[in-house]
Specification:
This protein has helices spanning 9-87, 94-101, 123-133, 143-148, 150-158, 172-175, 179-197, 219-231, 253-263, 281-296, and strands at residues 110-116, 138-141, 162-165, 206-207, 235-236, 241-242, 269-275, 300-302. It is α/β, with parallel strands linked by helices. The strands form two sheets. Strands 1, 2, 3, 6, 7 and 8 form a six-stranded parallel β-sheet that branches. Strands 4-5 form a two-stranded parallel ribbon. Helix 9 (253-263) links the parallel strand 6 and strand 7 (269-275).
């Protein structure tokens, strides 16, 4: 074999090594590219997932904020409702007692419309008129009538009128059999009022004697009962102005207006006696004109929420 025919083993090995290096480098580059692509895809995926997460988080925060705001509104509404509920529960204070003692005294002209002996079939008409004229009144209800018309008692209360006690039975011999019997009548009527209203803590602290406090054959019992009532945080009130619906059975609108005009004369503070008993439907017929008459005479209408404080 000649010199030219000899194989250059060194050169062959070097070339093989170079080829291997190139292949290795190419493989490394390919792997790097694949890794770069994978990393890029992962980064893009992560970024996309992060954006979705942030959107989801933002939605969750918005929903949570809405929930907080709704709960806050609900709490405020419940607080307001509770304040309104408590405001409608009469509370007898020393100031309230003095106000009752001085009920017929006032520097300004004021009128307290009061209705005894209900509720009855006449009461809805009276309430409709009071609502139309935006006047609040005081209802001295009978416990026995409350039992038969609890929904009407609730309407009276919900429309902002004051509910007080006129006893349970209106049977004089029963009510005035003793001072304790008077208190029992009050308590029984109040129990019926609470049941009708669904408010266990309601207490009017205000009683009107059937027939009035002064005079009569039961005068001594009434006087003793007044002290007993006072000891039990109950005050009493009569009237100094009449519609005349307790004076005759031959009632007319003209007669009631005349009596209101006569008995309110020269008085700044008047407590007007009226009735919403079934036999006194003329009072409902007269009420619009009674209110207009008293307004013309300069009276401002009040109820006993402003007296029992």
């Amino acid at each position: 074999m000649g010199d030219n025919d000899q194989i250059d083993i060194y050169r062959f090995n070097t070339k093989a090594k170079i080829d291997k290096q190139k292949i290795f480098i190419i493989i490394i580059i390919i792997i790097a590219l694949i890794c770069a692509i994978i990393i890029k895809n992962n980064i893009n995926k992560t970024i996309k997932e992060y954006k979705v997460y942030k959107q989801y988080e933002s939605q969750l925060q918005a929903l949570e904020q809405q929930k907080i705001e709704k709960e806050k509104i609900k709490e405020e509404q419940e607080k307001k409702a509770e304040e309104e509920r408590l405001a409608k529960l009469p509370k007898l204070t020393d100031e309230g007692r003095k106000n009752i003692e001085n009920i017929y005294k006032s520097e300004t002209k004021r009128a307290f419309l009061t209705f005894d002996d209900g509720p009855s079939s006449v009461t809805p008409r009276i309430l409709d008129i009071l609502k139309e004229k935006n006047v609040k009144a005081t209802f001295f209800v009978l416990g026995s009538m409350v039992e038969s018309r609890p929904e009407m008692v609730k309407r009276i209360y919900e429309e902002g009128h004051f509910i007080a006690s006129h006893g349970y039975s209106h049977v004089y011999s029963q009510i005035y059999s003793s001072p304790q019997a008077v208190l029992d009548e009050y308590n029984l009527s109040m129990e019926k009022i609470r049941q009708a209203l669904g408010i266990n803590e309601y207490n009017a602290h205000l009683f009107r004697y059937p027939g009035g406090l002064p005079g009569g054959k039961y005068a001594d019992v009434k006087k003793q009962a007044k002290d007993l009532l006072s000891q039990n945080e109950i005050v009493t009130v009569d009237w100094n102005c009449l519609s005349g619906d307790a004076e005759t059975n031959d009632l007319s609108v003209e007669f009631e207006l005349q009596r209101i005009n006569e008995t309110s004369e020269n008085k700044n503070s008047i407590v007007v006696l009226m009735h919403d008993a079934p036999a006194k439907s003329v009072t409902a017929d007269s009420l619009l004109q009674i209110i207009d008459l008293l307004k013309e005479k300069g009276y401002e209408f009040k109820n006993f929420y402003e007296i029992i404080k």
